[in-house]
Design goal:
The chain is an alpha+beta fold and about 325 residues long. It has helices at about 15-40, 135-150, 155-165, 170-180, 225-235, 305-330; strands at about 50-65, 80-90, 105-110, 115-125, 195, 200, 205-210, 240-245, 270-275, 305. It has six helices and ten strands.
């Protein structure tokens, strides 16, 4: 097996145009969060992505006994405590029974003292719709402005959305769209979850995949998702394998081409995520809305890698700072 490629900060560097667009985008994020309570008709400020939380749970990350010796440096305990947030990707909290099947499985990994080791916001669709930082920033800004200004910014949103279409024409993207459509009615815990971008594992770079064990995909189909999850954890535990892929060759495992899957990099199991039945936290607890899963708050050897990932750092900071400021004022 070849040696994995080493991380280089050049993978993360934005050019001057991208930096300017990021500043414009940050302003649109702050504006969105400030008005998010009226946008979603709730009594608190929401996130400007994955606004709708279905559940927050305590979990455990159990390290596989047979992991390669070089992993011991990063996983130096038999198990780690987790906080897990299950969500929908929509910017607006939808009160209807049916949500689009775009789900989040955000994981906070903690040490024995409750200190943060890493945040990993995983999603059930493994690819990202663009490789262009500029196009993405313009689209994200247009989406935020559309929610705030409604129809006066509609044509700007359409113009940016059209520019994204060419990025959908990859075999990986078509395959995963068809797969998602086939699973659109499936239970949230039956999906695989992915780190769309890459992360560091020490001086190397990896992608992460979570694969559930023995979850009935038809569970709770007639229930709203929050109710389905509540019912599931009254009688069932949840277990999922944690798998990683290494980046060996940028041609087969590109860091900044997020609309294609990595190939020729075998999955390595490093452990299991476990949520005990009864592990759901109080859905009415306000502290759940103050939780942040910013992956850039992780230890240096678990940090995100890549230009699109780099955008998350500033976006998360603006979103969480604005959200916490408003929510603390609202709830004292």
């Amino acid at each position: 097996m070849p040696q994995p490629l080493k991380y280089n900060k050049k993978f993360d560097e934005l050019n001057e145009e991208e930096k300017k667009l990021l500043e414009i985008n940050k302003k649109s994020i702050a504006d969105f969060v400030e008005q998010s309570s009226s946008i979603s008709d709730v009594n608190y400020a929401t996130r400007n992505a994955h606004a709708k939380a279905y559940a927050v749970a305590d979990g455990t990350f159990i390290i596989d006994k047979d992991i390669p010796e070089e992993f011991f440096l990063f996983f130096n305990s038999e198990k780690f405590d987790l906080t897990i947030r299950l969500s929908n990707a929509n910017l607006k909290i939808n009160t209807s029974k049916k949500d689009i099947p775009a789900y989040g499985f955000a994981v906070k990994v903690k040490d024995e003292n409750g200190g943060l080791i890493a945040n990993f916001p995983l999603v059930n669709f493994p690819l990202f719709p663009t490789n262009s930082v500029s196009h993405f920033l313009k689209l994200f800004t247009a989406v935020n402005r559309f929610y705030i200004k409604k129809w006066s910014s509609f044509f700007s949103l359409v113009a940016q959305a059209v520019k994204m279409i060419p990025y959908f024409f990859t075999l990986s993207f078509f395959k995963n769209i068809l797969k998602l459509l086939g699973k659109r009615n499936d239970f949230i815990l039956s999906f695989d979850y992915h780190s769309v971008g890459a992360y560091r594992l020490g001086e190397h770079m990896i992608k992460i995949k979570l694969v559930p064990k023995s979850v009935n995909k038809k569970f709770g189909r007639k229930l709203k998702m929050k109710e389905a999850l509540k019912n599931y954890f009254q009688d069932n535990n949840y277990t999922a394998d944690v798998l990683i892929q290494f980046c060996y060759d940028l041609k087969d495992q590109p860091i900044n081409r997020l609309n294609v899957e990595w190939k020729n990099s075998p999955y390595i199991k490093i452990g299991e995520v476990f949520i005990d039945k009864g592990g759901l936290l109080d859905p009415l607890d306000c502290t759940n809305e103050l939780l942040s899963f910013n992956p850039f708050e992780s230890k240096p050897f678990f940090q995100p890698v890549g230009k699109i990932q780099k955008l998350r750092d500033e976006a998360y900071k603006v979103s969480v700072q604005t959200r916490r400021k408003i929510n603390k004022l609202l709830h004292g």
